[in-house]
Each structure stands twice: as C-alpha cells, then as structure tokens.
Write a structure and sequence with these properties.
Layout lengths: L3 E4 L5 H18 L15 H13 L1 H12 L2 H4 L1 H4 L2 H9 L6 E11 L14 H4 L8 E7 L10 E5 L9 E5 L8 E4 L1 H4 L3 E5 L6 E5 L4 E3 L8 E10 L9
Helix pairs in contact: 2-3
Length: 242
C-alpha cells in the first residue's frame, strides 16, 4: 500500500470562498480596521496577506485569539461534512464509512519565515493515541493555497507509515503562544528517506496517522493556509476505548 495518495478537489471552491468570507468577518470583529477600504479576493491575495502579517506582528494577542476562535467555529467544523471527506478516508483506509471516527478538525496559518512555531518531525497518532496501528488512521491535509517548497509544503518520511506512536516523546508542553510538541525520537528518523509532497489548493494529501511528517519552512511572502482532518477506525481492535 502506498504511504500517501492525493485526492483532487476535496474542498469545493464554494466551501473555500465561504470560509474565507467568514474569516474576514471574524478578523474584522477583532480588528475593525483590518479590511477598511479594501476588498480581498481570497486566501492568496497579497494585500490580505500583508494585513494579516501586520496583525500578527503588532497585535500578538489578537492574532492568537483569532487563531483559537477559528478552530472552534461552526464554519470550520462543517467543512468535512459538506464536502463528504469521510468518503475519502473510507476509500483510503479501505473500510466502510460507518466505522470511522473523526477528530481534531484543524485550521493552520503558517506565517512566512516563522521558525519558532514550526513543528519538528511528528506523528499525529502520538497526540490522540486513538489507534496504535498507524494504518488504522488517516490524515487529510488540505491546503487552501498551492503549496511548493517555497512556502513550505509537507515533508514525509517514506516507510515510516508502518510505525506506531511509541516512536515519539513529549518535547515541549506548549504555552499561550506556542504549541505543544510531541516529536519523533531522532534515532528513528535516519531510517527513512525524506520526500517533499507539493499539493495544489483544495486537494488533499491523505496519509496514515503514524507517518513521520512536518511542514517545510515558509520562505514566501504569504501565509500557507491549510485544513487538517483526522479519521480513525472505531472498530479496530487497537482503538483506544477497546
């Protein structure tokens, strides 16, 4: 079985546009002058990105509140359902969709040249531990902009998809402005080759929950926006509550 697969047009243009409109409205509720006298065209709009970069730089508390608020929003939570992403997870894991769990619907805003908040090599399975076997869980990574090495597309360790979450350990507990990090022990990393996987906007890179992966450094002048949804096999013998 291949370590990953790319599914095209997983998030509809309509969903992406509606989510962008919601994001603008929410940001404007925190910062009323955010889009004053300006009409932004979408996630890749240079003026929108410049405004967001300035907000992050000058009003860290506001940006943090915005980030956390988006993750709790109905506008984000509805995206997997209105786009029927469970069907993709079902196809990738080769199980009936009725057997799936869904968890941690996440929106990421990876800022240009942000090294402090970038994740090292990690496994998604090490955070929730829902399934011990990597291949009983799937990650759907869906950028809202085209991703390249320049803006830090995803890197994976080919072959590590067979690993379980015992390969990782807690490195940083996290804080208000920094994320908790559970990273792969370095002794496991050298066993596998690294591959950059460039993904076009609204497509999905789908891979297994235990694969070693991380984002590249975004050295562009724009944010890299992405949505991540994680699914698991509720009926598997290694499911956490069994």
């Amino acid at each position: 079985m291949d370590p990953y697969k790319i599914y095209k047009n997983c998030i509809s243009k309509k969903s992406s546009n509606l989510f962008f409109k919601f994001f603008i409205n929410l940001t404007s509720s925190y910062e009323k002058d955010f889009c004053k006298n300006t009409k932004f065209s979408g996630w890749g709009d240079i003026n929108f990105n410049k405004s967001l970069i300035e907000l992050r730089k000058n009003k860290k508390n506001v940006f943090s509140a915005l980030y956390n608020s988006v993750k709790q929003s109905n506008s984000l939570q509805r995206i997997p359902f209105e786009n029927k992403l469970h069907k993709i997870a079902s196809d990738f894991l080769k199980i009936d969709e009725s057997k799936l769990t869904i968890r941690n619907i996440t929106f990421r805003m990876d800022a240009p040249n942000d090294i402090k908040n970038s994740y090292g090599w990690h496994q998604d399975s090490s955070y929730d531990k829902f399934n011990f076997d990597s291949k009983n869980g799937a990650i759907l990574w869906m950028p809202l902009v085209n991703t390249t090495r320049k803006n830090g597309t995803l890197l994976i360790k080919v072959g590590s998809e067979n690993s379980n979450y015992n390969c990782s350990k807690l490195v940083k507990k996290g804080s208000k402005f920094k994320s908790k990090q559970i990273l792969v022990d370095k002794k496991y990393l050298k066993k596998y080759r690294t591959k950059h996987v460039c993904v076009n906007k609204n497509n999905a890179l789908v891979t297994f929950n235990g694969i070693f992966h991380k984002s590249g450094i975004n050295s562009s002048n724009k944010f890299r926006f992405s949505i991540i949804v994680r699914y698991g096999n509720l009926f598997a013998k290694d499911f956490i509550f069994r």
